[in-house]
């Protein structure tokens, strides 16, 4: 598999995934094209050794499994999340000011606000409609052209802006959307876009979950194309790499890819890592293919391992003092093992040793990140999944700059590095 082909697939995935619902739809399409069978959580399951299956929940989280050919004794789990910080529309989003129709927004997750100014913004998400026959349907919407912008205030009117100031999300972040527009125009435009994209006519919009996004496409940047610049690298990059590893695994072992929604807001939801989705799927699989009962399930989990993949903070050349001097991961320097003594990351010496050995086997470099002792530390689905399931877990990630910005940057070589390490994990016969 050539590095260039993988990067082209990555750019396409990022471009087609402006929201978690779109990301899961794209992943599901790839899985089905590769022979995976979609399972419905509402229906009975009939599973066979060696089969490839997947299930989704809320259309924004997905669990895909390569079932082992012989005996369900352990699983190699890869975790990621589908959501990214951004601006979501409020339910009654339409508002007017100074002759402009604007969109009221709510912050989703820890958004880096300043980079959202002066960007060409599209609109995407999920819309639920009631058809003329009374049927209710949820459909994806993606307006992939610039329909909104959040204009900066001229420096002449705010001379202190470069000295730094707080941004008021309620009053200073609503984008302009339509000159001279009225509140009813938002509903009218949504119906027009639904007709253009899905042929839906005569329907009533019941509700929506819509987000603004930067329509600038992802790109390879740098003289040697050594960088990837894109929205939502945190954490669609890990979703893509995990999916690549699953699809390229040799099928001999039990492999699980879980990509949860709502990580950026705490993971406490029915489809988040703190919810029961992954556990529900694994219990149903174990009931058919493993040792039955709760004891059998616990034995399966304790024989398994999870690698939680979420991007890491790369050493920034303009802000080198923000890293511990001995733990500054470099872009294109290989995947990063993320360590935190206070369990903000799930890594311990046993799971870290396993990953280091996988990287040695795959021939890829490996790095370590620990935050400065005088700074706070973020977290991932790793500790949450470990807490919910009890599975031995570690946290790793591709290093990146500008985390939580509207456009983030990572190293193009690290895509191949982490993919190869995860393929080695998926194919390994002995985990301990």
TrEMBL record:
<keyword id="KW-0479">Metal-binding</keyword>
<dbReference type="InterPro" id="IPR001948">
    <property type="entry name" value="Peptidase_M18"/>
</dbReference>
<dbReference type="InterPro" id="IPR023358">
    <property type="entry name" value="Peptidase_M18_dom2"/>
</dbReference>
<keyword id="KW-0862">Zinc</keyword>
<comment type="similarity">
    <text>Belongs to the peptidase M18 family.</text>
</comment>
<keyword id="KW-0378">Hydrolase</keyword>
<keyword id="KW-0482">Metalloprotease</keyword>
<keyword id="KW-0645">Protease</keyword>
<dbReference type="Pfam" id="PF02127">
    <property type="entry name" value="Peptidase_M18"/>
</dbReference>
<dbReference type="GO" id="GO:0004177">
    <property type="term" value="F:aminopeptidase activity"/>
</dbReference>
<keyword id="KW-0031">Aminopeptidase</keyword>
<protein>
    <recommendedName>
        <fullName>M18 family aminopeptidase</fullName>
        <ecNumber>3.4.11.-</ecNumber>
    </recommendedName>
</protein>
